[in-house]
C-alpha cells in the first residue's frame, strides 16, 4: 500500500512535487545525478515513494532514467530546445487564433489586465516570468481544448530545463513584451489570422534567443 500524507495524497506525489520544484528552480541542475540515498535521508522517506516520484517525473520529461546508472535531471540539447519551441509554436498559435474567434469581451478584458501587469513587471524578471506564463496559459484556457492545454503544460515544464532561457538574453524581455502587446491588439481586433501569425513569430524569436550559439555561454 502506498503511504499517504494527512491530506490524503500519496506520499510519492508530495515527493514528486518537491523534486519538481528543485529541478525547475535548477537547485538540481540539468544533467545532475539523482542521489537517492541522500534524498531519502533529506526528505525522511524510504526508497519506495522516491522511486515512484522519479517515475512520475520521468513521464513528464524532467528526469531521464539510465539503465544501471540511475536517474538524472534531463539536460536539453539544442535539438530538444528547437523541437519544444516548434511544438509550442504550433499549439499556442492555434489557441491564439481560437481565442480571437471565441473569447468573450470579459475574457479579452482579463487578458488585457494580465498584459497590463506584464508591462509593469518589466524591471522585475521573476515576476515577469510568472506573469508571462500566466498570460500564455490563460489564452489556452480560454481557447478551451484541455488536451492541447495539458500537452503545453508538460512542454513548458521541460522548456524550463534549458540553461539558456530566452528571456535571459539582453533585450529579449523588452522584445517579448512588444510581441505580447501586438498579440493583445490582434486578439482585441478579433483577427484570428494575425493572432496566429504573431504567436508563431513570438516563438521563432524566443527560439532564436534561447538557442546556444558557438562561443556564447
Automatic annotation (TrEMBL):
<protein>
    <submittedName>
        <fullName>GntR family transcriptional regulator</fullName>
    </submittedName>
</protein>
<dbReference type="InterPro" id="IPR036388">
    <property type="entry name" value="WH-like_DNA-bd_sf"/>
</dbReference>
<dbReference type="InterPro" id="IPR008920">
    <property type="entry name" value="TF_FadR/GntR_C"/>
</dbReference>
<keyword id="KW-0238">DNA-binding</keyword>
<keyword id="KW-0804">Transcription</keyword>
<dbReference type="Pfam" id="PF07729">
    <property type="entry name" value="FCD"/>
</dbReference>
<dbReference type="Pfam" id="PF00392">
    <property type="entry name" value="GntR"/>
</dbReference>
<keyword id="KW-0805">Transcription regulation</keyword>
<dbReference type="InterPro" id="IPR000524">
    <property type="entry name" value="Tscrpt_reg_HTH_GntR"/>
</dbReference>
<dbReference type="InterPro" id="IPR036390">
    <property type="entry name" value="WH_DNA-bd_sf"/>
</dbReference>
<dbReference type="InterPro" id="IPR011711">
    <property type="entry name" value="GntR_C"/>
</dbReference>
<feature type="domain" description="HTH gntR-type">
    <location>
        <begin position="9"/>
        <end position="76"/>
    </location>
</feature>
